[in-house]
Amino acid sequence: MQQLLHPICLALALIGFFALIWPPRMLREDRALAALAGAYALSAVSFVVSLEGVWKLLDAAVGRPSTGILVAFSSVVMLLALHQIVLSYWSLSSRSARRVARCSLAAAAVVVTVLAVLFFQLTPAERSTPQGFTANYDHTGVYQAFLATYIIVYIIGEAAVVLGCWVAARRTGQAWVRRGLYAVGTGAVLTFGYSGVRLLDVSYAVLGHAPPLPAAEDFAWICADGGTALSLAGFLLPTLAVYAIPHLRTWMRAQRDYRALAPLWEAVHRAVPTIALEPVRSQSVALLRVWNITWLLYRRVVEIRDGQWAVHRYLEDSVRHAAERRHHAAGLSGSQLVSAVTADQLAAALAAHGRDEAPRMPTEYADAGDREVTRTPNDDVRALVRIAAHFDMSAAS
To answer: What topology is assigned to 2-246 in CATH?
Structure first.
């Protein structure tokens, strides 16, 4: 059962971790987000080392059997502390949350130290598997203390998660966040079944009785991994709703706009190569931009505007009036009319720049008045995308 359920939880942990780590600046700016990313990473570690193949590789690398159990237990203790930090930042003031964070991390460090001391007092078994760990050691008092310490801390940590989710869910106004927190709390409650079975294991061992039936072991892992999976998914809901999905939408919109501006930028750059801040790469490489796409998009906008200004002395008044009449007759008005006229003006100015042909009657761009009005960088992107949609590459040659 353990080897069946662990990969599912591992997949959820990895999805949550990778959904949070980009962009890195968000982790620096948001402590709750950083703590949640750390919790997902530790959860992934706890499941990875509990897979039999990894367990054996770790034993061989460290030279001590069953080291995976110490890594797994320590990871869970630390992630429970990080869960408290996340919930504190979501429901308390920053000052109170920082105090909770310090106390949680200090308490987790003490518990991990105690677990390590007890673990290294165990007499190493000859054969070590995740499923056989308890059977190898449950007759020893040190192991009983080791397991009891972990389970008691686990119960306290999950109970604190239940309480923290209840408080945070009551204070949030976002429905998806509230649903996610209730899912996390429900998952934490489900893990009590695992803790109960483990406490029974310790009690049976102390009393010298045979361990519970195999069905109890399956029940324990269903509760542990089922509850953990629900908690991971629950934290993932507000994570996606508040962080990942908005960033993904921004990234996709920036990718779309970056490509939409490519023909316009190429025409302007061909006429005025000095606008480029960096050496120009091939078009196939440019279309594969992945990282820093927002900065690259705004850089492209600035370069197009620089090129637009560089050829403004070639603007011809007759071109502007002819474009206004033509596009107005086509049914364009407002910002679309301004963008279409500006696109025609820019194409004609680039062609005149290539011929070094001065205008008979100079004029300004149709969008000059709009650009004098204070606007955000996103407004400028939208304006240039509209211009690019009407831009005729053949007319710029």
So the answer is: Rhopdopsin 7-helix transmembrane proteins (1.20.1070)
